[in-house]
Backbone:
């Protein structure tokens, strides 16, 4: 037969669109991905919970979604192959600013806009061939869901973990709402980039600080299976430091002024004190003469952002408060100032300034002509009073009667704390950078806070049987950010009878931060639709923790820290028996184009839909997974989805070439090909578990080549080893290219679906590398035998022979004259 007639008999390529349409329908009928709770509860099968971060419905899916879900699906499908009961759910984080802002821009109601996008994204996910269990689908903006978000808020409130307080908060002037500290990135709003300012407001907080130590400690448990950068980011964010609280007596005041310091050993060098300009403390302390100067200064401070204020290279500003305090260790009278480089909500909001050993204090001292006194003589460094460089290193203490002869900070700190505690002047303490989580937002599209404010009773939680407090539709109302929640103006909704006394009351008009919704969605997946609580405790016990959580590193602090906090509280409530929600974590890289982040302004965006149209789902998925290690960025300009498609066509052709009957046992087939197949399967196991998905693809490509060679110029298409190899290709490919894998599986004579097939059993005998026996002679006598690969080099064989203990003993201390090597079978040593 000529090549041409052969082509007519067997098509050489498959129709990508037709194959996609065909298998979507089959999957709809078969539902191969619905997780069976009963199989896990009964212990029939071990569980695996595969979780990937659920999207905001602010548009259609893009390349980033494609990448993360393609990677994630490898893991989920692999576990299913290995016989685990896999839960692989998906939903939408559908409340919140991103969707609301996009809706307002499009002049649509957030609900209309959000739910339309969810449908679009749902269809795109389905087309993308992902093995999600859609029976567990959820939307955080559904009343069935947020009813339980409110219920959880109320339980937290009962435990003292949700409370309201008045304090300076981060304010985004563009989004017209407060932000959590975690949402302020380099002084800018995480959502819109506007410079964040401070405002004094009454807001709701979650008391995450109560869990600071545990959140820190458990990072050690997670460190082996979480990315290093996430662990480090969380550690820094929690920011534990050890130091002391020191009490200073202020003239004309009963209450001491307490400072937090990590260097109590430098107390003798404290020459002034500084209180945060925007702290209530400054207002209390200021003398009458200095009041108006102070108030002017405070106004100036409020306009600046936190990042500007903390910058070390910024000129120092401040104002004298007109009062003095007494240094508790030497009785010295020192002035008290207010400045913006001291933060109101860190430590005690006040510091003792030691200009010789803290650069910011030194800059301040220089700006206002305050004394600088060195108390640590750091070898090689000059006197900071002259060099204007603060020294922070270890050295001998000077002018510090308490620490004479003591060398080293650690000991100095320890002794000072001991002294302060003995005298009742201070105490050792641990301080965290972590603040309580500000959760209320002055925006419409979120979960209403289930609290009523009553003139007689004060704050009253809405009773459970009145949940959910539904978000009023407010169609036609202006939902643009105005600084007050639009719910406040909805009087019909907000005016209610107090649940406690029946008197007139008003609903809290703020809504919850989106991050509250996403702090527990992975628990809802364990028992979707559950009516008697946020989740069925038994189901959560069976499925948690998630065995892998795949998502973007942008959530390293925010979402992951909050979800960990919720999990710990729920464990303390007896609702969970795990204290960490995510056993392992993987952060995918970013898909970029032409070396740059995709953006509208650069015009370098890659449209996912167009790529799928041109190359098909399988080729795009394969390209994304094959691009490199999952953590690395992918430059789409360097990728070849066309090449991926050519490979898939080549793989598919194998399935048409196999001529043996389905079910033919592979034993007795071509051993060389069988070795390749079994080695590939065996390695794939380790590679997938180690998240080296790109290497699995590379190995599959090698297996396709080996199979092609066996068909064309080896054992031929009828050999059972060829069938075994082609079936293995179908299964491995299904991890990344499910459509063509199904098509291959069917052409090889199997029933759909390949997703429900079993993983190949590796024959250990086929993993052993072939070897030959090499004989080693010394002076013509056989002294050793070595098992070596048939391809061993002369040099390697000689080295192995001379290292053999029996040969070493036979040579003894005689010098080796000559070594004759006839690889791979003989080595002759002449001495
Ligand atoms: C005296 C001193 C002497 C300090 C010295 C440092 C060096 P961490 O490690 O981040 O906890 N500090 C305390 N409260 C502050 C606030 N609200 N705003 C700005 N700075 C504050 O840092 C603790 C140190 O930061 C404290 O130790 C204090 O300065 C300063 F040679 O006290 B130190
Ligand atoms: Zn009341």
Residues:
């Amino acid at each position: 037969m000529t090549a041409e007639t052969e082509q007519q008999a067997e098509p050489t390529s498959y129709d990508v669109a037709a194959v996609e349409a065909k298998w979507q329908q089959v999957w709809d009928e078969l539902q191969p991905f619905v997780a069976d709770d009963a199989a896990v509860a009964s212990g029939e099968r071990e569980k695996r919970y595969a979780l990937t971060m659920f999207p905001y419905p602010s548009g259609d899916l893009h390349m980033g979604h494609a990448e993360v879900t393609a990677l994630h699906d490898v893991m989920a499908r692999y576990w299913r192959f290995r016989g685990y009961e896999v839960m692989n759910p998906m939903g939408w984080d559908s409340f919140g600013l991103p969707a609301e802002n996009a809706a307002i821009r499009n002049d649509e109601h957030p609900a209309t806009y959000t739910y339309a996008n969810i449908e679009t994204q749902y269809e795109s996910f389905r087309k993308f061939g992902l093995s999600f269990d859609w029976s567990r689908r959820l939307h955080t903006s559904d009343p069935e869901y947020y009813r339980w978000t409110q219920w959880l808020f109320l339980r937290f409130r009962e435990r003292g973990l949700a409370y309201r307080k008045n304090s300076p908060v981060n304010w985004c002037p563009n989004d017209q709402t407060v932000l959590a500290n975690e949402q302020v990135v380099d002084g800018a709003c995480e959502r819109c980039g506007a410079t964040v300012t401070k405002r004094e407001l009454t807001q709701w907080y979650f008391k995450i600080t109560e869990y600071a130590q545990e959140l820190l400690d458990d990072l050690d448990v997670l460190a082996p299976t979480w990315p290093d950068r996430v662990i480090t980011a969380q550690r820094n964010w929690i920011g534990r430091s050890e130091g002391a609280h020191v009490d200073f007596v202020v003239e004309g005041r009963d209450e001491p002024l307490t400072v937090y310091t990590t260097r109590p050993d430098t107390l003798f060098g404290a020459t002034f004190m500084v209180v945060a300009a925007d702290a209530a403390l400054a207002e209390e302390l200021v003398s009458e003469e200095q009041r108006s100067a102070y108030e002017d200064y405070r106004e100036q401070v409020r306009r600046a952002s936190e990042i500007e204020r903390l910058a070390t290279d910024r000129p120092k500003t401040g104002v004298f408060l007109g009062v003095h305090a007494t240094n508790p260790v030497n009785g010295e009278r020192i002035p008290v100032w207010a400045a913006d480089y001291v933060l109101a909500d860190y430590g005690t909001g006040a510091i003792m300034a030691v200009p010789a050993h803290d650069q910011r204090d030194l800059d301040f001292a220089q700006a206002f002509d305050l004394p600088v006194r060195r108390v640590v003589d750091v070898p090689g460094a000059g006197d900071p009073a002259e060099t204007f460089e603060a020294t922070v290193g270890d050295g001998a203490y000077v002018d510090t009667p308490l620490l004479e002869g003591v060398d080293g900070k650690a000991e100095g700190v320890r002794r000072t704390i001991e002294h302060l505690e003995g005298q009742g002047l201070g105490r050792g303490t641990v301080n965290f950078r972590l603040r309580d989580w500000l959760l209320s937002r002055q925006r419409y599209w979120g979960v209403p806070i289930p609290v009523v404010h009553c003139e007689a009773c004060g704050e009253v939680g809405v009773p459970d049987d009145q949940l959910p407090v539904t978000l009023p539709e407010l169609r036609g109302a202006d939902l643009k950010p105005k600084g007050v929640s639009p719910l406040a103006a909805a009087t019909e909704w907000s005016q209610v009878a107090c649940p406690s006394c029946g008197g007139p009351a008003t609903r809290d008009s703020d809504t919850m931060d989106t991050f509250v919704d996403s702090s527990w969605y992975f628990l809802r997946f364990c028992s979707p639709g559950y009516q008697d609580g946020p989740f069925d405790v038994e189901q959560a016990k069976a499925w948690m923790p998630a065995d892998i959580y795949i998502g973007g590193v942008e959530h390293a602090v925010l979402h992951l820290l909050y979800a960990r906090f919720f999990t710990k509280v729920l464990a303390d409530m007896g609702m969970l028996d795990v204290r960490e929600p995510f056993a392992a974590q993987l952060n995918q890289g970013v898909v970029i184009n032409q070396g740059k982040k995709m953006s509208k302004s650069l015009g370098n965006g890659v449209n996912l839909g167009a790529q799928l149209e041109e190359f098909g789902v399988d080729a795009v998925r394969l390209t994304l997974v094959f691009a490199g290690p999952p953590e690395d960025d992918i430059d789409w300009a360097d990728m070849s989805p066309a090449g991926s498609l050519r490979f898939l066509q080549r793989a598919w052709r194998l399935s048409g070439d196999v001529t043996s009957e389905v079910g033919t046992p592979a034993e007795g087939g071509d051993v060389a090909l069988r070795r390749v197949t079994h080695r590939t399967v065996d390695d794939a196991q380790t590679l997938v578990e180690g998240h080296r998905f790109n290497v699995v693809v590379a190995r599959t490509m090698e297996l396709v080549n080996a199979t092609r060679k066996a068909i064309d110029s080896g054992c031929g298409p009828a050999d059972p080893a060829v069938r075994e190899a082609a079936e293995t290709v179908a299964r491995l490919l299904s991890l990344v290219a499910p459509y063509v894998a199904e098509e291959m599986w069917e052409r090889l004579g199997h029933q759909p679906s390949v997703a429900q097939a079993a993983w190949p059993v590796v024959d250990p005998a086929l993993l052993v590398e072939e070897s030959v026996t090499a004989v080693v002679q010394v002076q013509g006598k056989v002294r050793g035998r070595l098992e070596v690969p048939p391809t061993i080099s002369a040099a390697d064989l000689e080295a192995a022979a001379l290292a053999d203990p029996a040969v070493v003993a036979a040579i003894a201390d005689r010098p080796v004259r000559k070594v004759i090597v006839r690889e791979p079978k003989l080595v002759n040593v002449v001495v």
Observations:
- The pocket of zinc ion (ligand 2) is lined by residues 454, 456-457, 460, 498, 500-501, 503, 505 (CB under 6 Å).
- Residues 1-7 have pLDDT under 50 and may be disordered.
- Residues 247 and 258 are 4 Å apart (CA to CA).
